[in-house]
Amino acid sequence: MAPEPPHLPAQELRRAVASLVVVRASGHLTDPQRHYPRWELPNATLRRLLAEGVGGVILLGGSTAEVRLRTRQLATWSSQPLLFCADVEEGVGQRFEGASWLPPPMSVGRIHAHDPEAALALAAAYGRCTAREARQIGLNWILAPVCDVNNNPANPVINVRAWGEDPATVSALTAAFIAAAQAEGVLCCAKHFPGHGDTTGDSHLELPVLAHSRERLEAIELPPFQRAIAADVASVMTGHLLLSALDDQRPATLSAAVLSQLLRQDMGFGGLVVTDALVMEAITAHHGPGEAAVLAMEAGADLVLMPADADAAIEALVGAINGGRLSPTRLQQSLRRRQLALERLLPEPVQPPCEPLGPLSNGPDGADQRLALTLLQRSLERQGGVLTPVARGADGQGLGVSLVRVDGLLSCPFLSPTAPALTLPEAAGFRCQLVDGLRPADADLVPPGDTPVLLQLFIRGNPFRGSAGKAEPWVALLDLLGQQGRLAGLAVYGSPYLWQSLRGRIPANLPAAWSPGQMPGAQTLLLTSLGLGDSVAQAGFTD
Amino acid sequence: MAPEPPHLPAQELRRAVASLVVVRASGHLTDPQRHYPRWELPNATLRRLLAEGVGGVILLGGSTAEVRLRTRQLATWSSQPLLFCADVEEGVGQRFEGASWLPPPMSVGRIHAHDPEAALALAAAYGRCTAREARQIGLNWILAPVCDVNNNPANPVINVRAWGEDPATVSALTAAFIAAAQAEGVLCCAKHFPGHGDTTGDSHLELPVLAHSRERLEAIELPPFQRAIAADVASVMTGHLLLSALDDQRPATLSAAVLSQLLRQDMGFGGLVVTDALVMEAITAHHGPGEAAVLAMEAGADLVLMPADADAAIEALVGAINGGRLSPTRLQQSLRRRQLALERLLPEPVQPPCEPLGPLSNGPDGADQRLALTLLQRSLERQGGVLTPVARGADGQGLGVSLVRVDGLLSCPFLSPTAPALTLPEAAGFRCQLVDGLRPADADLVPPGDTPVLLQLFIRGNPFRGSAGKAEPWVALLDLLGQQGRLAGLAVYGSPYLWQSLRGRIPANLPAAWSPGQMPGAQTLLLTSLGLGDSVAQAGFTD
Question: Which residue range forms the structural domain that includes residue A305?
Fold first, then answer.
């Protein structure tokens, strides 16, 4: 056994510890633009923390042009190379306006069921697209792929974010993603170890408890992570999950049994272990911000993501090392792994970041547009005939109604006033009526009279939602409209499980369709498949 | 009389004509980011038109960082200096995220009634702030100030965009704005000539007809424009208004009697005359895109803004000159005026546009933040006591309701899920229920039971709305809630006229307030004045 390295001087120790902390920033340049000021540090604080040695930033929000400037700005506030990461699980456009927004990974999983070769090629293209666009805006670390096996249809938070419902599919597709993305010169992150696919709780809100045996984990949850490690994935993210068979005290994120024994020793992972956001309720409900960081490092994590209080986390980690609770060796291991990860990165693109005419300046390139369209086309499911247009009243208003349900009307990037889900039905005589899943009106949802109703449901498993709409009245409403003979059609954007459960309740000839995607392209494709609008050209995809 | 200049060669003539056309572009860099693809040209078309000599671009949308790159991008597509303009009537932040979003000009007008000196200083600060931030993102032409005298409370489109309700107030404040803004090196635009303040129709949707005599115009509508000309305003924008006493055939935009006789001859304006957007219904319902441009130039306009079809406009103008309908002299006059306007501009700021660390990168500067706060504080009106917090039910939900009415939930920059208008009432036990003015639910708006109701109305005169909510049920609802003893409070954000009409119907001790502003700062200030939250610090204003 090697001798313990000497203790670092106080200032150096503090900077070393800080380099293992990843803080959250808005992708916008100015403080007032922050959408989540509760979580996104103001610029003055970011600047101070980066000057003090904080080593990573997770970004959310802003256009690609803005984020490209933002990563440069943040880099100038630091004297070391930084890790810049983002939750770009569904393409960079999922988080940053102006880049490619791809249909969720489950779309690839569905294709894999009947055409595995095509699905593998699509997963690789998915990784390449994400990595290339990430680098163009200054990100070097993709917090993807989700390696969870979504074998629980009631899962409120993974759902379509997963690449499949069985270990073989998820393993094959995520490995293809990782290999392709990392070949472009960025780091990937397999998450959420040891597997968040069979939970019914949302770890953003509470700590899910899983009673799976080690054998069960080895059969279902672990294979994708084992495969990711074999594919040389640069990092693994821990899940805030209590696996009682492995450690009945601590969630995976804080468990030595899970991180040091299972992940490092048994599975042989030598790369970066990063916690999921420590600010999530599953952690903060039980531990203070400093203690959570120390427990994570003690358990074997290298990087702590979004501690509830970055200063408290740094302070506590310094105290734990000075007090002998964390060894200098443990610190040096994590510093070394961070350094090795940075050395894997390709040099930054030569294109000067201030140049507005790069590949992103005219939108996603042709290949990436075709990728999104291919995924949408090949994952679409439909049944029945086409929608019958509805007549208009004397006031020119359509006499039909389309109930459009989204999670939250106030923050809905896929539903602008000119979104196809509104304009195409309105052109066919269906007045759109919006229903906010977060703040549903108390009023009865059934439109009065005997108007035909086109039901459009945007529901998927989303973090912070607590459920994928399962307490909502869609089954009952569908039955009622069916009994009244008023159900004109059904469109489900998102959850395949909701689609399956509703599909079983409608007549086979009812015009109905499902897309895993919710973006405008998905809306156009789905609604044109039901006979609205007139051509795929309207999907906004052009070569 | 000078001899007619020689005819230009065909290619040169086409480029010359094109330089007088101003086309619309999104402020975003990529096509898929456009929010209004119907009006905002795609990049390929923009690039071609600019290469063919189009001389101006009006921009809307995007963050300041993005627009700064966008103006540079567009400039590289042109071989001549371009006019870059935007409707930044309420600060650059009204249109572009990350800059100062100021309360509407009517807030200054209200202050002028009791403190004219302060109001003049505030109007000058308003102009300086707008001009300085405009230049920082590459704009050189501010389509402000609105010089209309809003003396008609039923005006659906001007309303709080005006600087006042009488000619003296509007004249004094807009002249102060113009002098201060133009001193910063940008061009201003007095609009909408000869005065859109006394209309009840919206020229975006129909052509308003005004029967005012010349004497009446000289008493009410014209003084602000006369004063703007005296203040050396660089440009005047025409209104799509039929002034039957001056020209009973043609709207001002297309009328030689209004533009050449009244504005040029009688009022002595030698600067640039620009049409309001020719794509508006008031014009397109009567004239094709080419003919509208020719009629405007014939009438005396120099620049045509947003023709419904730029190619058709250029084609028709070339044809009109070749066919003798427009004289070469007329063309040369407009080219000369455009050249003189460009020569008035200060050179571009020395700060390289790719530098992310400019004054805007950390948000509006302190002086501009104080300006916004001062305007909000000094224009706030309130009455009655403070709101009584409401108890919570067993589920933790507040037992009160706050009905929050906005024009459109899907496109509401001032109401994010964390907006003070939602979070402050919710913290005091009022569950927020959203009402979409564009797509109101059919259901009865009265919350069931006997819960207390805080009514929050975001209503102002907005283009394309057709009315400032006047067909909506707020008076009746207010009366009903009052009778039931359930009205807890009233907040009006926007129209002072709605506030006046509702204020007359509520008891003097009911907690109620009005702010001309709708942005988060206005929400915090208004609601804290009613006793919610706890401090002005939450307004998001910091020094």
Answer: 19-346
